[in-house]
Amino acid sequence: QPDKQISSSSSSCDPALRPIIRRRARSLPTSPERKRAAVQCQVSGCLSRMNRVRFADALGLELTQVKVFQSGEDPSIPLHVLSRLSINSDLWYSSLDLEFTMQCLVPDFQQPADGMDFSSRLQKQQVCLERVTSSDLGLSGTIHVCNIAFEKRVSVRYTFNQWKSLHELSAQWLSSIPEKNGQNMVDVFTFFLPVPPFLLQLCSVVQFAVRYQVNGQEYWDNNRGKNYSLTCRTHPLKMPRECEESWIHFI
């Protein structure tokens, strides 16, 4: 706003002051405009309703809702939150090293790839499980098969209840590698077997065998007639005290 020059004759030359006109936003028309719009809509036969936004306080309601728990009424806490609280409690109250236990599936057999007779088993059976690992989601494994023909199918047959019922899933081709003698090629297949969380209870067992179908023939690897089995067991985990903050942050 420019500065005014103060003089005896300046008062008679000042411009007349005009009142400030407040304009209503177009998004919020005045009441007469709303009425005219409604009349035009009815005359033209328009059946659509005008979009309106109302807030709870305009209707006499509260903007917030407060839940009051009575004595003896506990709030519902999800199971995964309770498990994390339990882990954090174990970490907090442990004295020296942080230690807690987890339940996981542990193989009841030696990993075939770690055995000295892995190659001979493969040549004899034409198919052999190489290795299997477990996680909280299920089992992952790799299978070796002799490359008898290009068209082949590899699958895993498994059970959760001692073969009272069984299921089967297909393994996926991963790669082709030369055999240890360097003369023949071996195809590597991979599979993932999901295990429902409710089955991860102490002493629960998962059993499976591997089937290889090629050239109208069928070959099996069932761990020499005993099947491959994994039992759910408690597995202790330890961690130094200085890693407590980083571990809780990771969880």
From TrEMBL:
GO biological process: regulation of glycogen biosynthetic process
Coiled-coil residues: none
GO-annotated molecular function: glycogen binding; protein phosphatase 1 binding
Domain CBM21: 119-231
GO cellular component, one term: protein phosphatase type 1 complex
Gene3D superfamilies: Carbohydrate binding type-21 domain
Name listed for the protein in its UniProt record: PPR3D phosphatase
Organism lineage: Eukaryota, Metazoa, Chordata, Craniata, Vertebrata
